[in-house]
Amino acid sequence: MTEDGGAITEPAARDLIVGAVSRASVSGQEAEVAEFLRGWMAGRDFVAHIDASGSVVGVRGSGPITVMLLGHIDTVPGHIPVRLDDSGVLHGRGSVDAKGSFCTFAAAVSGLESAALSAATFICVGATEEEVASSRGARHAAACYHPNLVLIGEPSGWEGITLGYKGRLIVKIEVRKDNFHTAGEGSSAGDDLTESWFRVRQWAAQASGEGVFGRVQATVQSLGAESDGLEQVARGVFGLRLPPHVSPSLAREQLSAALADLESLKLDFTGEEAAVRHERDSPLARALRVAIRQHGGTPIFKLKTGTSDMNVVAPHWPVPTLAYGPGDSSLDHTPQERLDLAEYDRAVQVLRAALTQAVLKQAALPGHAGEA
Question: Sign of torsion, CA 248 251 253 255?
């Protein structure tokens, strides 16, 4: 181990993240990186395998407390040439979102000492298809495990602790109308689709609460229209980010009512995820807060306006949960995606210390016996 900007550099941990980012893994094509990660963990005292969802799973420790470290190993499309520049910054798709976070998990757990490993069983799951609506890996994990503590791998910055994410609803609208002369009376398919968007946006403003996390965000994901001379067809996809007070079912009900008089519309709602917000004083949050301070940082609690696998597993795992991982989330999905490996090093050390503290304190509680 060497020192790098105040953080301890572990060559094996850096080899892990460089190797993971160097292997392309667009959603649905994660097999190569999953096998690489399985091999890395198997060589470091994990019991490792690829599960039925294609996710890589590494288990270390034998204690009664079950700690789930769920990250995702798929990425959005868009090749970024992988390179490690002279300043120690790793450029490449997935470096931030979110291979950096999963590698932080695996590297931190790989260095845990016997006391922590006797107190808890640590399960690292590198999940598939998080970047698409299926969330295949997380849904499979939710059905298979019953953890006592949960960490979700998403970039928060090494000093950041993410407590919650907004929910989601995708509104797909199709309009079909007979073709007519533009000088005639009536509305076109495009007119009706445009009117539907105005109403969706108006509903979002009316349904919004206070602050950024309380606001309903509405965006146009796609718009298009075509005609074969006999029929006009217009299609739109609108994305909604929902705060905790607006459930997907409530949004669906109210939007259906708001659009009901536009009889030409065919509505389809998909991608439903409820918002989630966890407590800031959970055992995990306290341990991570202490560890961040021990390593010279100032803990920052965050609420994110996107969604993550936290939304997927929260209904199944009603236990202390937070998201953690190095990197600047504003670089997610961008051509500039990159991660400073000195920050990655520090995140590994912080997480290792936090995991140790959390499970040892949990184990010391009367009658814990691994109960959530």
Answer: negative
What gap in Å lies between CA 120 and CA 236, rounded to an integer?
Answer: 49
User: In 304-336, which positions are buried (b, 16+ CB within 10 angstroms) versus exposed (e)?
Assistant: beebbbbbbbbebbebbbbbbbbbbbebbeeee
Q: Which of 10, 97, 130, 328 is catalytic?
A: 130
The residues near 90 (Cβ < 8 Å, ≥ 6 apart) are 17, 18, 21, 82, 83, 84, 338, 339, 340, 341, 344
Note the pLDDT tens digit of each residue in 149-181: 999 999 999 999 999 999 999 999 999 998 875
CATH fold of 2-165+276-364: Aminopeptidase (3.40.630)
Angle between the 99-110 and 341-364 helix axes, to the nearest 10 degrees?
Answer: 50
Q: Do 85 and 63 form a contact (C-beta atoms < 8 A)?
A: no
263 as an active site residue: the answer is no
Neighbouring residues of 143: CB distance < 8 A, sequence distance ≥ 6: 316
| Residue of 10, 30, 74, 345 with catalytic role | 74
Q: Is the dihedral of CA 235, 240, 246, 248 positive or negative?
A: positive
CATH 1.10.510.10 fits 167-273, yes or no: no
What is the model's pTM? 0.90
Where in the chain are the domains? Answer: 2-165+276-364, 167-273
Min mean pLDDT across 2-11, 306-315, 346-355, 357-366 is at 2-11
